[in-house]
Amino acid sequence: MSLWQLAARNLWRSRRRYLAYVASAATAVMIYFLHSALIYHPDVQGGVPDSAAAFVARGLKAANVVIAVFSFGSLLVANAAFVHSRVKEFGLLSLMGLSRTQLLTLILVEGLLIGGVALAGGLAAGLLFLRLFFLAISALFPLQEPIPVYAGPRVWGHTILVFGAIFLVVSVASLRAVVMKNPVQLLRARRQPKAYPTFSRWQAALGLTLCLGGYAWAAVPRPMVVIVGVVPVTVMVTVGTYLLMRAGLVAALAWLRRRERIFYRPGPFLTVSHLAYKIQENYRALGTVAVTLAVILTAMGTGLSTYVVFVQAAVDNTPMAIQLVLPSESDAAAAAARVEAVLEKHGVAGLTYRKLTTRTGKLGENAVTLAPYSLYATIERPRGETLPPVKPGEAILIHPYIPPGGTRPEGPKAAELTVGEERIPLQVWDDMGGRLLNPLPADYTLVLDDSTFAALVERTPAAERLHLALWTGPGWKGRAMEQALKELGPYFFRTYFTGSGPLPFSAKLDAYLGAASALGTVLFIGLFISLVFFAAAFSQIYFRLFTEIEDDRRYFQRLGQLGMSQKELKRLALGQAAVIFSVPFVVGVVHSTFAMQALSTLMMRSVLHYGWMVAAAYLVLYGVAFAGTAQLYWRSLRPGLVLRGA
Amino acid sequence: MFVLQAQGLTKIYGSRGQVATRAVDNLSLEVERGEFLGIMGPSGSGKTTLLNLLATIDQPTAGTVIIEGRNTATLRNDELALFRRRRLGFIFQDYNLLDSLTIRENIALPLVLDRRPPAAIRARVEEVARQLGLTGILDKYPYEVSGGQQQRTAAARAIVHEPAIVLADEPTGNLDSRSARDLMEVLTLLNQNGATIVMVTHDPFAASFCRRILFIRDGRIYSELRRGESRPAFFQRILDALALIGGETDESVAVGGA
Q1: In a domain, A234, yes or no
Q2: Partner A contacted by B56 (CB < 8 A)
Q3: Which of A198, A395, B80, B171 has the largest CB neighbor count within 10 A?
Q4: Do both A9 and A153 map to the same domain?
Q5: CA distance A585 to chain B (A)
């Protein structure tokens, strides 16, 4: 038998143990491959540099660096753990006459075989999902036309080169565990009986203090405190997590063990003691997985919150479905007619057209657009109530931003409105219920009573008057509107853009799509990276579970001999596995909850529920992965447990 | 009153087309309440297979095992597990203690599995520990105590739930002679307190503590010895019987007699 055959046989024998590792490595390869397919796409490489596709590709490029570095690190750790778990087996082989060179070759070949399988699997999966990936890109981002599916030689070459190098280095690095030891040392490696983990009170206390301290810091409701705390809190909670996963868990289990009423029942009795016994070898993996999950949940929660909040802000900031601002009355009439014609052509319904002739002025420091109360009273705004009518000498100042919680201002303040040479003293009420008009021509809008407004506009010279055409209503969204805007946008660009200054044309749907695609890109890329992290995290606990399966089998076998039925053993084994898998998930969710609390402080509104939504989505994913793992685990465990065979 | 009756037990290993091995061949035996029965025989005589059949861990090809008047063949798998847990006690050659439990918890295990109230468990465990001289090490873990102490713990676990019968498979096999003597004295004590014990061994010294010994060869009962006189004399008769059985002599004969 050649070394290659021996290596292949070794791997096949422990295929269940390596399954999650290969799957997580393959996930990384697949996503790297998909990203590369867009990065090296001819349309992106030779296309418009500022196109949406190029924007996405730039993000993916950064994502690929993250994926490559993370995969390298996590595969290095995982592979070292593989070799370590089999040191005794290697010792036996060298005792049986395998030379050192042969042994090292064997380990190297095994590593490369695993890497090769992961690479091949990842590329195959990538090819399978390629069409879906490009469909998603085309659907999510407003590209001029759908981007064709592509996977050229550069995509393949790049992926194979990067991951080939990673697998090679990782395999070579794993030789360290064996290279400096003689057979006897190798054989002895795992012989010592496991000691029951003792725990130090101060370590448990320190871990708890660090985590609670970090939580408290993150929960301080002052943005500056939160910003200063980002790095120290992350370090505190990370260190605290590892301490808690060992000393804290041991302490908690020891406490449970002293509670006779809880402990002296079959399930708790066996589970609590067995978990405590297993912590020593597992706490690192549990800590790493908890921290990784916290990072994933926080990152995705932040991405989702940012997406929702900023897209909402973009929509709120552009209340008019379409708004035209033109200096000449005839231009305005022609433009409005044009818009109406195009809207009709594309079948856009549900919009109301209004005309407004107005001017701008200054209220204190702020530029304001003037508006009559009658307009203010008839236009529905994002939030807030319409204030009661104003008398001459009074005005309502509409602020451009909506403060979270919607503060209700008290009585009017005295202010002076400057229009041209005229200065008008006013009693001004504040309205923070969201914009009345799109940002141009001014960020603030000042609402005057109708007669004062009419007189002011009347006194304004024709050159300073502005003619606004406004469309409002529920028809701002939808396919038809999108088509209409595709025609109107370039038309107004050609017709009225003078080379400088703002465009006279703005539309709510444009603002919405712009924000959604920019932030959607971030979310989209984040999702892919998080999947790589997630697979790596899951495979770590999976590997721990299957590494200890021999010990576990002996354990359950003994219980079977003492008279536990197979049904009871299955429930016990899967229950213990479920606890091991859920501990890091729960810790990760708690960590990320406090991170989302800190984010709420920064965003000045509660985003906790977005964190819960993300956590729920990952819980489903985690649950499905666990269900599969549990089945596999029981099927691997069972053969030694069948007591009554005919 | 018989606690255990085995009738026509046969166990055949190997399937059609291959050479079948009759590990146990039409063997019948009875154990009375309060008995201390030894089963001896050369390696491969079928004594461990017989014990596994009696323990309901293995299924006979033919024949029945009746414990406390109940035919174990009529029990479903989970009923059998429950029966094994409640009515049988086991002592294994390699102790079979759970490394994750303290000595106290290992002894308590059968009671916990049977959902007895915690206070009753505590009292019973301490009572048994006192009997077996384990009181001082109750809160230690198995790896922290000697092999002899581990096996005494296993003995305590085997009798803590007051089973109908204790089955011991080479209980002195992993012990030095001093610990072996200690353990056998403990088993004798338990027997005097009312436990029914069936012990498989090939160690004549351990066997000399039994009240009755069945010698097995090729899956059948070859002869039977009852202890009447003193233990050393009984030991001598066991050696004679073993010499008569022939086959191979075990290395443990020399060790055990020392």
Answers
A1: no
A2: yes
A3: B171
A4: yes
A5: 25
Shortest CA distance to A520 belongs to which of A145, A146, A158, A143?
A: A143
Residues A323, A176 share a domain: no
Q: Is B23 on the interface with A (CB under 8 A)?
A: no
Decide which of A134, A168, A193 is a domain's last residue: A193
Give the range with max mean pLDDT: A100-114, A314-328, A520-534, B160-174.
Answer: B160-174
Q: So where are chain B's domains? A: 2-257
- A193, A261, A277: residue with CB nearest B118: A261
Interface of B with A in 199-218 (CB under 8 A): none
**Per-residue model confidence as pLDDT tens digits over A593-633:** 999 999 988 888 888 999 999 999 999 999 999 999 999 99
B83 near A CB under 8 A: yes
On chain B, the residues whose CB falls within 8 A of the CB of A566 are: 77-78, 81
- Chain B residues in contact with A260 by the CB 8 A cut-off are 118-119, 122
Domain that residue A146 falls in: 1-193
State which residue of chain A sits closest to B84, comparing Cα positions.
Answer: A563
Residue type, B77: N
The reply to whether residue A645 touches residue B96, judged by beta carbons under 8 angstroms, is no
Superfamily of the domain at B2-257:
P-loop containing nucleotide triphosphate hydrolases (3.40.50.300)
Which residue of chain B comes nearest to A562, CA vs CA? B85
pLDDT tens profile A403-441: 766 566 667 888 888 888 888 888 888 888 888 888 877
Q: Helix crossing, B177-192 with B147-159: angle to 10°?
A: 20
What is the domain count for chain A? 2
B76 interfacial to chain A (CB closer than 8 Å): no
CB atoms within 10 A of CB A645: 7
**Domain final position from A513, A529, A555:** A513
B103-113 and B147-159 helices, crossing angle to 10°? 20
Same domain, A9 and A147: yes
- pLDDT tens digits, one per residue of B50-108: 988 888 888 888 899 998 888 888 888 888 888 888 889 999 888 889 988 999 999 99
Q: Using the Cα atoms of residue A316, residue A319, residue A321 and residue A324 in order, give the sign of their dihedral.
A: negative
Please give, rounded to a whole number of angstroms, the shortest distance from the CA of A632 to a CA of chain B. Answer: 23
